[in-house]
Structure formats: structure tokens, C-alpha cells
Amino acid sequence: xxxxxxxxxxxxxxxxxxxxxxxxxxxxxxxxxxxxxxxxxxxxxxxxxxxxxxxxxxxxxxxxxxxxxxxxxxxxxxxxxxxxxxxxxxxxxxxxxxxxxxxxxxxxxxxxxxxxxxxxxxxxxxxxxxxxxxxxxxxxxxxxxxxxxxxxxxxxxxxxxxxxxxxxxxxxxxxxxxxxxxxxxxxxxxxxxxxxxxxxxxxxxxxxxxxxxxxxxxxxxxxxxxxxxxxxxxxxxxxxxxxxxxxxxxxxxxxxxxxxxxxxxxxxxxxxxxxxxxxxxxxxxxxxxxxxxxxxxxxxxxxxxxxxxxxxxxxxxxxxxxxxxxxxxxxxxxxx
Length: 336
Hints:
Radius of gyration: 22 Å
Shape: elongated
Number of strands: 15
Number of helices: 7
Structural class: alpha+beta
């Protein structure tokens, strides 16, 4: 079944009372904090277009809020979308009237982008749900956070505008709990620690991010779960949400993710023994998995946690490496 995403309908109106804690701030900054799914630049554009009023008066982006004012926003009609619904299987971990939680397989792109028009998670979600919030853009229905194409694991998607705003605010305020598993080359010197290094766009390779001065503050926690010969299984907790953060930080530490060609994790001859080399050479993709996501339900305020099992190829590789290590050392490979 193939249907076009909805592209018509009346403009959406939003009304809110500015909290007193925002007193003295520019209106565009205050709105970007209160409704983080729109950037400050987007708010400046909406205000300049006369779509935002305070106490029924149009204002400028530089207007200083006093607190307790009524702000009204009339969003324009969404632009026509070329996104079509595609009937493809989804691994659903939870679904209700406000959100859907899925286990994204490796290799699936989250939403259309440069060079990718179909076959994405967004296409499948549009078919499954029939329609989703388009606050984040008509090409990204319901998307409040992303996983890289080759990263598997838990993702939450908003079904309506209220859920989208609430979940986006949780991610921005770092109220969500995110736990990843990463199979990396080598073994960190410390059993656990933190990586604190600013991340920005690579100066010459635009598809890459890099640790660099002037980048955005970034922090990642890690601990070794199991040493597995030439590689180690880590539990990783990103405390910020920068693009490619885990991959960049682990590579910066000298332990890139297995299979990550972009950040130095592709080592065809890797492995200490022939059995290790064979197991690692047979793995395709990036060995990074979003195992757990915790969040506050936008309607009930209940604290929820969702876990996704490893994809079969990654599970098979970890088990094989653990068996090889046990056979070669006579010791257990740890809980993996």
C-alpha cells in the first residue's frame, strides 16, 4: 500500500503562558527553550513573519518577555511532502495513543535525506500509524531523536504534537536514560571512565564529526563489560546527544567501534588468533546497539524503560568471541 503523506489542513495554533523564570529573556530564546523542537532560528523566522503575538500584539524576536504573558503562535500549513507510506515490518516494543517504541534494525535509515527517498523508518511508520506529528518537518514525521543507519536498537516516535514537544524537551534537558553496547578494538586502560571532549563538524570531511576546539560540549560514560581478546564489549552512556557522539568519542579514546569505517574501526586483519580474525572478518556493519531507553510518558508522567535485544549478527559475534577466549585462556569471558 502506497499513500502520500498529508500535506493540507488548517494552520495549527499554539497558545502558552510564558513562565516567570523566563523574565527578561529575548522572546526567540525563551520559545526555543520552552518548545525545543523548533530552533531559535526557526522561531526568529516565525516571529518576523508575524506568526507570533504577545497579548494579541505582533512583536520582534528581540522582545524581552516579562513573564506570565500569553503568547499565541499560528504555524503555517506544512509544505507538501513527497514521503509515501511503505508497508514493511516493524519490531514494535510498545505502542499507545501518544508514542510508539521500536527496535530499529541495523541498515535502516531513519528518515529521507540526501540520496535517500524511500525505504526509511519514516516511510514504514507512516504506513503503520496512518499519520504522525510533523513538528520536526514533513519528511521526519514523529521523529524526536535518531540512530545512525548501521546502529540498531531502541527508538521512540511521537504520534501527536503534544507528545512530540514533551519528548523533545526530555531529550534536550537530558531527562532520558540511554544505554548502548559497543564492541570496540582494544581494551581501555581503565575499567570505566568518562570521555569529555567537544564535538564539531570535521574541517575537511563534511560527512564526519570530530573532536575539535569550538565544538559543542560532549560527555560519554563507559565501562568494560567483557574483554574479548582483540576487542572489548563496553556499556556506553552518552550524557549529551551530539551527531555520531559515541563513535567519535570512542575513536578519540583510541578504541573505535568494530566495523566503523568512518572513524577507524575497520580492521580486516584484526584479531589475535586465526579464529578471532575469522569471526571479526565475517561481521558486517557497525557493532553499536542502543540497548535501553528510559523516558517519562508525556501523558501519564510514568517512568518507562524499554530494552531491545542485540541483532542476531552482533549477538552471534559476541558469543563466538567469548567462546574463543574461553578456549584459549581457560577463563570465562565475562557477562556478555
